[in-house]
Amino acid sequence: MVKRMGIVWNLRRLMAERDMFQTTDLIPALAEHGIHLSREQVYRLVAQVPQRLSMDVLAALCSILHVTPADLITVTETRVQVAKPTATGETTNAAKAPPARRVRLTRPGER
């Protein structure tokens, strides 16, 4: 078993709790904090878990929503089963490729 860390991005839920149901509601609030993002960038920020996040954007979101970073980001831990190699070097859970078949290609009308 291997531990994998995951992140739950709570921005959409926190916005809904504050009656902000459209992603464009964040644009003027972010602009007041000196953050200028396009409509598409704000949509991706709300709809997806960001892989990289500016500390300025994080601070602005916390200020706008009156939350802490811990409220915005929840870290989760999952355990993943890892296949162990056998004596032959193959993994026990590995899918085996089908055996190779010899094929002869012909053009239409040829035999």
Automatic annotation (TrEMBL):
GO molecular function: DNA binding
Domain HTH cro/C1-type: 10-75
InterPro entries on file: Cro/C1-type_HTH, Lambda_DNA-bd_dom_sf
Origin species: Streptomyces roseus
Region named Disordered: 84-111
The protein, known as: Cro/Cl family transcriptional regulator
Pfam family, one: HTH_26
